[in-house]
Specification:
The complex is a heterodimer of chains A (282) and B (42). With 282 residues, chain A is an alpha/beta fold. Helix content of chain A is 39%, strand content 17%. Chain B has 42 residues and is mostly helical. Chain B has a domain at 18-42. Chain B has 4 helices and no strands. Chain B has helices at 8-14, 22-29, 33-36, 38-41. Chain B is elongated, with a radius of gyration of 15 Å. The chains are: A alpha/beta (282), B mainly alpha (42). The interface between A and B is large, with 64 and 35 residues.
Chain lengths: 282, 42
C-alpha cells in the first residue's frame, strides 16, 4: 500500500530544496525512480553537484541553482505547476555559533519565502524537514511529539520558527502541510566535516588512521536513523492524507551510545580493512 | 543530552517502519566508504 501511494507522485512536479545535499539527494533519487518530475533546488552552500550527477540525462530531473531565500521571477517560474515541495534546506551553523543570523534567515525566512511561493503557485503539499532540536534538552522519555518546545541552540530556535510558519500556513490558508522532525541521520553522502553527523565524522577519522574522538563520558544515547527511512517518511508524508497538518518524529527509536558506536565502527572498519588492524578504541 | 525518541505516531498513522538493524545497515553502507564520505570530496 505504501509503495502504491508513493507511485501516485509519478508525473507530478516536485521541488526538493537542498536536493544536492545528503538527505535531499537520496530523496531526489527515489522521486526520480517513482517517476516524479523533480526540480532539485540547491545553492550548493552545503549540497554537492556530485551527489546528483547520477541523474544527469534523466528527463524527469532538473537542477536549479537557487537560494531558498530568493524572491525573483526565476523562483516564481520554478514553482509553476508544482504539486509538492519537500523543504530540506537548512542552515546549521550552530556548531561553531558564528552565524546565528544566517540560521534565522534560512531556517525561518527561507521557509516563509517557500511557503509564500507555494501558496501563490497553488502547491498541493508542503513537507517541512525539521529537527529534534526543537525539543531542546528532552525531559520526558520516550520523547513524543507533544514534548514541550524548549530549544537550546540557535539552530533549534530557527527551525522551530520555520515550523511555526508552516503551521500558520496550514491553519490560516489551508495549505496541506506535514512536519518531519529528523534525529541523528546517517548514511552515504553524509558530510564528514564538523557539520556532519557523528557516524561520518568517526568514519573520516578511521579512514585517516585516527581513533574516533569521544567527548565526555561517551554514554550519551543517540537514536540513529538511516537516510533511506527518512526518504520513505517524506514520501509517506506527501501521499498519505492522514499526514495533513501533522508533525512527526522521524526517528528509528534505536538507542546506541557514542562509546558503542566508536567501538562498533572500529570493529567493522577492521573487518573491512578500512583502517589498520592494530587500531584501538581509545 | 539523552535521546529516547518515540516514533509511535509516525508508525501508526503513516504505516512506516524503521530499520532496527543499525549495525547491519551501517556495515552495508560502509561497503563503499568512498560513497559514504563522498560529499566532502566533490
Amino acid at each position: 500500500m505504501t509503495q502504491e501511494l508513493f507511485n501516485t507522485l509519478a508525473g507530478r512536479k516536485v521541488i526538493v530544496t537542498c536536493g544536492a545535499g545528503f538527505i535531499g539527494s537520496h530523496l531526489c533519487e527515489e522521486l526520480v525512480k517513482v517517476g516524479a518530475d523533480v526540480v532539485c533546488m540547491d545553492d550548493l552552500s552545503a549540497g554537492k553537484r556530485g551527489n546528483v550527477d547520477l541523474f544527469k540525462g534523466r528527463n524527469n530531473f532538473t537542477f536549479a541553482h537557487k537560494d531558498i531565500c530568493d524572491t525573483d521571477e526565476e523562483m516564481k517560474a520554478l514553482f509553476k505547476g508544482v504539486d509538492t515541495v519537500f523543504h530540506n534546506a537548512a542552515s546549521k551553523k550552530n556548531i561553531c555559533l558564528d552565524k546565528p543570523e544566517r540560521d534565522l534567515e534560512v531556517n525561518a525566512g527561507g521557509a516563509l519565502n517557500l511557503l509564500r511561493h507555494a501558496m501563490d503557485a497553488g502547491v498541493r503539499k508542503f513537507v517541512q524537514a525539521s529537527t529534534g532540536s526543537v525539543y531542546g534538552e528532552p525531559q520526558i522519555f520516550p520523547t513524543t511529539e507533544s514534548h514541550p518546545f524548549e530549544p537550546v541552540s540557535y539552530y533549534g530556535v530557527s527551525k522551530l520558527a520555520g515550523e511555526r510558519y508552516v503551521d500558520v500556513f496550514h491553519k490560516l490558508y489551508g495549505l496541506d502541510t506535514t512536519i518531519l522532525r529528523y534525529f541523528h541521520v546517517y548514511g552515504p553522502r553524509q558530510e564528514s566535516n564538523e557539520f556532519g553527523g557523528v557516524v561520518s565524522i568517526f568514519l573520516r577519522r578511521i579512514t585517516e588512521g585516527k581513533n574516533p574522538v569521544v567527548f565526555g563520558h561517551g554514554e550519551q544515547v543517540r537514536s540513529f536513523t538511516y537516510v533511506k527511512d527518512l526518504v520513505a517518511a517524506n514520501l509517506a508524508a506527501a501521499t498519505n492524507p492522514a499526514a495533513t497538518g501533522q508533525a512527526y518524529n522521524a526517528a528509528s527509536g534505536i538507542r546506541v551510545t557514542i562509546n558503542d558506536l566508536a567501538k562498533g565502527m572500529l570493529e567493522i572498519s577492521i573487518l573491512k580493512a578500512i583502517c589498520p588492524s592494530n587500531m584501538g578504541t581509545r | 543530552m539523552e535521546f529516547d525518541v518515540s516514533n509511535e505516531k509516525i508508525r501508526s498513522e503513516l504505516g512506516l517502519s524503521f530499520n532496527q538493524d543499525f549495525w547491519g545497515t551501517l556495515r552495508s553502507a560502509l561497503e563503499d566508504k568512498d560513497a559514504f564520505l563522498g560529499a566532502i570530496e566533490n
